[in-house]
Amino acid sequence: MVTTVRHRGLAVAAACVALPAVGGAVSLANGTIDPGTAIVDRFPWQSVELAGLALFAWVAVPFSALAVLAWRGSPRTPQATVAAGLLLVAWIVVQLAIIRTLSFFHPTYLLIGLAFIGAGRRLQPTTDRGPAGPESGTIGPVADAAPRRRIEA
To answer: Residue 140 domain-assigned?
Structure first.
C-alpha cells in the first residue's frame, strides 16, 4: 500500500514564490514595472518583455508546478523542490550577471532558493540501513546484509 504524503506547508511556500514571480513577469511585460534605462540597456535585446517571459519560465512555472505537486502529495515532490530551488538560484545569479545591480531581493531570493534545495534534499528518501564504519565491521549501507559464507571445494 502506498501512502500519499502531502506537503501543504511546502506547497504554500512554493506558491508564495510563484505568485510574485507571475506578478513581476506580467508587470515587466506590460510595462507596469520600469526597471530604468540603465538596467534595460543591459537586458538581451533591451527587451523587458523577454525579461518578463524569462522570469515566468524560470521561476513562476517551476514554483507553480511544485506547489501543485506538493499539495497533491506527488512522489516527485522532493526532486521538484530541488529543481525549483536550483532554478531560482540560477535565476538570481544570471540576473545579477546581466543587470549588475544589487537589490535586497537578490540575497533574499538566493537564500529562499537554497532553502528549497535543502528542503528537497531532506524530503528525499534515505537508503541508509544502519550503522556503518569501522565499529560495525562494514562500510556503507550493506551493514544489514547477510554475511558471506566461504565455500570450500
So the answer is: no
Q: What is the largest CA-CA distance in the chain?
A: 83
Range of the domain at 14: 8-125
Q: Which of 51-55, 72-76, 87-91 has the highest mean pLDDT?
A: 87-91
14 pLDDT above the threshold of 80: yes
Q: Are 17 and 62 in contact (CB under 8 A)?
A: no
Q: Which residue has the cell 517571459?
A: 53
Domain membership of residue 134 (yes or no) is no
pTM score > 0.85 for this model? no
Q: What is the DSSP letter of 138?
A: B
Contact 87, 58 (CB under 8 A): yes
If one compares 143 and 106, the residue with the highest pLDDT of the two is: 106
* Contact call for residues 38 and 14 (beta carbons, < 8 A): no
Whole-angstrom Cα distance, residue 137 to residue 117?
34
The domain total for the chain is 1
Q: Residue 139 domain-assigned?
A: no
